[in-house]
Amino acid sequence: MRRITRITTVGIATAALALSATACGKSSTDSGASSSSTSGSKATKVAIAYDIGGRGDQSFNDAAYAGLKKAEDELGVKGSEAEPSQGESDADKVARLTSLARAGNNPVIGVGFSYAPAIAKVAKAFPKTTFGLIDDTSVTAPNIANLVFNEEQGSYLAGVAAAKASKSGTVGFIGGVEVPLIKKFEAGFTQGVKDTNPKAKVLTQYLTQPPNFDGFSKPDLGKAAAQGQLDKGADVIYAAAGLAGSGAIEAASAAGKWAIGVDSDQYKQAGLASYKDQILTSVTKDVQGSVFNVIKSVKDGKPQTGEIRYGLAANGVGLADSNPAYVKMTDVTAAVEKAKQAIVDGKITVKTAP
After folding, report:
1. Each residue of 36-86: pLDDT tens digit?
2. Residue 173 in 3-state DSSP?
3. Helices 287-299 and 60-75 meet at what angle, rounded to 10?
């Protein structure tokens, strides 16, 4: 039976897409994890702390949640979740992670690179606790597992698909926040497009600049950016922008153009069901698997540590084929498969920066 303790109350905003999850309170309070357990035994306690946008983003955070749920279902662990607060500081993250670790959760997983400074501090204070850090390798310690992905490889495949599916010869890339991680998505996508059709035009826009991270959490920003690209002739738009990307999907769908999802197979996301017919494909990251694997490693007594990389060769990243319309585009799927094999064989090296 699934038992998850939420650290904060989450309000579901129904405007635009009926899927925006935002925290309504501080998440750095005591975890509230109960002592109840399955069959009277003490269950292993684990926790994840969500990135900007929180659970319900139909993308990155939801993929992490799926890994936690799988661990509960298959490993019998007891999970806790912690939501971010709007405009929070690193000190807030430190307090949140400290509370989770103090409550006996092991591992404690920070979803997103923004947790790096906080994990660097808290991991020192709790050396017997394993900390999972997704999308960052800048901080290391014997009890930190850096869970990272070759996003540029999956994005290259998206670029191939976009170039082949485009009729106008103009496609768009929308990045949530202009940070090195999202530049990897841009680099791979643009390279894939240009290698497939050198004459194609790639429109690129970032929604916000650090330290403003609203570009990961506000669908209206993604929607406006996508509309601007549609107005310039783009007929395929790829957004790497977390919850904000759902706005781009909405805009592309309304215009009858193609959207490419990110992180999760967004064709399958319930909150995007109204737009799924126009979600050509999605660049997937096995965030679910990475969360499950680090939890299992701790439960098995062999905690993961150091860099754990998920690439194309082991299906750690990839391109979803859930949309029947995509599967029917045999010229597109053949080109994608050819490109995938070339990357795996080392014949194509994908750039990690534009």
Report:
1. 333 334 679 999 999 888 898 888 999 999 999 999 999 999 999 999 988
2. strand
3. 40
At a CB cut-off of 8 Å and minimum separation 6, what does 23 contact?
A: 8, 9, 10, 11, 54, 83, 84, 85, 86
Instruction: Give the DSSP letter string of 233-291.
Output: T--EEEEE-GGGHHHHHHHHHHTT-EEEEEES-GGG-GGGGGGGGGEEEEEEE-HHHHH
- The whole-angstrom separation of Cα 64 and Cα 83 is 12
Look at residues 269, 249, 266, 278 and name the one whose alpha carbon lies nearest to residue 319. 266
Question: Could you tell me which of 270, 25, 312 has the C-alpha nearest to residue 149?
Answer: 312
pTM for this entry: 0.85
- Summarize pLDDT for 204-225 with one digit per residue, the tens: 999 999 999 999 999 999 999 9
- What's 315's DSSP letter? T
Q: Six-digit token pair at 177?
A: 């926040």
